[in-house]
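Feature request, filed as a ticket because there's no other form

It would be nice if the structure record came with a short human-readable summary line next to the tokens. Right now we just get the raw output. Example of a typical job, pasted below so the devs can see what we mean:
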Amino acid sequence: MNVLRTLLAAAAAAAAAVAVVNAEFSEPKPEAPVLTAARFVVCTVCPLERFGAVRKFIEEQEFWPAVQVEHSNTQLKPVLYWLNQHNGVLRKAYDFTGGETLEFVVGLLKEQNLVRGHVPTFVPETFPRSEHCFAWRAHVPAPHDDGTPGLERTYHLYPHDAECYERVKIPHPGYCECVDGTAVEVREDRDRPREPFSCEEKCRESGVKLVPVPGAEEPRFDEDEL
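Raw output as currently delivered:
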């Protein structure tokens, strides 16, 4: 009886260990979206004089770190979007018609606790790993403290991160995060535009050292193959 109990306890411990390993390497669970920031997408083909509230807000944008401004050549009027914790679009917030006031715009932001001076905190998105890769991580040159361009300093620009098999066409520099901890940097060549690529391809071509998933069956060889 004692032997049977010992065997059952050992089997339970082994099953628990396997469950822990499988949990560590299972597909990441989707994170609940959190409204973290906002973005004005402004039309470049329409005069902002028609949208006085947006123009006035852009003039004060430096005091609103949680609000971004993006210019679009295809949009016909300004649109406000809410952003999630990965700096990606959560949903459309408002289409501007031209009759809004600056106080109205500020009120929209304050309703979401995006107040003047608030600095948002973004986190990189977690993607399912592929055989050689974790993700594409995009970054752009960050300016020096005096406002001059700084090519050597970079920061993540999370909305352009991508999973390993997604075809990436880069408008700015970035790198592929590979499973062995190395980074394959990819930069745009202005004279010769780069074809879309996936980071699984880039990491595989770079010859990264594969990191096996614990619990996976080890390869076996016949004696004739050794």
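Something like this underneath would help us a lot:
The beta strands are 37-43, 67-72, 79-83, 89-95, 133-141, 154-156, 174-178, 183-186.
Residues 2-24 form the longest helix (23 residues).
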